[in-house]
From TrEMBL:
Pfam annotation, one family: CpeS
GO BP terms: protein-tetrapyrrole linkage
Enzyme class: lyase
Family: Belongs to the CpcS/CpeS biliprotein lyase family.
Superkingdom of the source species: Bacteria
Enzyme Commission designation: 4.-.-.-
Protein name: Chromophore lyase CpcS/CpeS
Amino acid sequence: MSLEAFHHFFDCCIGGWSTERTYHYLTRQEVERSHTEFAVRSLSAETKAQVLAVNIMETEQALEQLPGFCLGFHTVSEHGEEVSQELNMLFVPRGTEDGWLVGDYLRDRAYEEARPIVSAFRFNPESRELLMTTHYTRIVSVDSITLVNPRLRVRRILNYVRPTRDDQPLDTLALVGFGVEQKTDG
C-alpha cells in the first residue's frame, strides 16, 4: 500500500483548527457543547525519538518518514469549564488489513490519563478516515477523524466502559461525541 494518502492526510492536519463539538454523556443522560481551538505542528526527528523512548518502543523505520505532531488545544464548555493541554504524538505504520493501513499511535501524554500510551490506529485511504483505539484503565476510546477536504474534518468519539476481560465485546457506551473541525489558517 502506498503511504501517499496517509502522508497527505497528516500534511493537511498541520495548522490551526476550530472545532464545535457535542458530547452525549450516556451514564448521566446529559448533553454538553464545547468549542476547541487546536494548534498542530510537525515534530522534529529528535522529539519523535523521545516519544518512542518514553513508550519503550523502537522502530526500524526512518523517523523522518513517520508522521509526528505536537498537538495543543484549548477547550471551553458551554458551562465555562476550560481545559488546555499539549502533547506529542507519533504514528508508526505496521502493515495493512482489509485495505486499511494499521499501526501504533504513540503519545507522550494521554488525554484521559497523564502518562505515555501506545494505542492502535487504522487509516482508510479511500474514505480518508483515521480510526484510533486507546485502552485506558476504565474506558476504551475509539476516535475517528475523517478528512472531508484539506480545510474540513468530521470527528466522532465513542468512549466505551472497558470490559473486565479483553475478549469481551465493547457494548456499553459512556460517551458519544461529534464534532466539525474547520481549518483557521494556511
